[in-house]
Amino acid sequence: QYFFTVIDAPGHRDFIKNMITGTSQADCAILVVASGVGEFEAGISKEGQTREHALLAFTLGVKQMIVAINKMDDSSVMYSQSRYEEIKNEVTTYLKKVGYKPAKIPFVPISGWEGDNMIERSTNMPWYKGPYLLEALDNLNPPKRPVDKPLRLPLQDVYKIGGIGTVPVGRVETGVIKPGMVATFGPVGLTTEVKSVEMHHESLPEAVPGDNVGFNVKNVSVKELRRGFVASDSKNDPAKGTQDFTAQVIVLNHPGQIGNGYSPVLDCHTAHVACKFKEITEKMDRRSGKVLETAPKFVKTGDACM
Question: Where is the Tr-type G domain (predicted)?
């Protein structure tokens, strides 16, 4: 029913930064949970990656989720319905805590190794009446694409292509890009004409949000553009640099306390920029947004603040 771009996010703790990069671009998450005895328990434990990934997905705005309960063929599971129910109940409890609505989430028992319930219904689990994985993907709702907002296209890379010239590449986040448009690159304010727009080696009359495109620009060298710059329409609210902004921050995981003057690296679309917390104005409830304290001295893991 749809074309899918698969973003394979790493599951290991050490690569959580890459997982965040991937997840921030996703319309839906498939949370893969191992059903093996001991394996599931490790993932859902307090420090486990099942918990951390589910929390990150929700926090990064991925509102649609499918849970795939994998390794149902394992010798400790043997396609057991009671093991499936046990895992489903425990994951449901946690997802509810994070903020998801589990009633809307399919829990699909699969075996990636044997192929059960992947692209067709498995005969090994006649007790399961829900959708198989491909069916669950087909049942997703494509998000509304913000075509009517001003163009924002963060650059992923910039190439020099022989016979063509400079080709910046990235994903359209909002608005539309088309040949003939005069583009402005923030934060530097460089302005140039877009000669052509391509996706999968085909020329496009225009590209819309969700499209990963390359576009050719006039009279600009590769050295003048870099990853993290944002392309915009010079005639419609072009992207500009800024000195400061107000942010809503959720502290997912931090060893100590964070106070005024804290200097983290900010990952924003494809840019990575060092910045500083000038002042923490209020601490609030992470789910309801209700203010708990004004001008707190510090915040720690689990807190939300402005």
Answer: 1-147
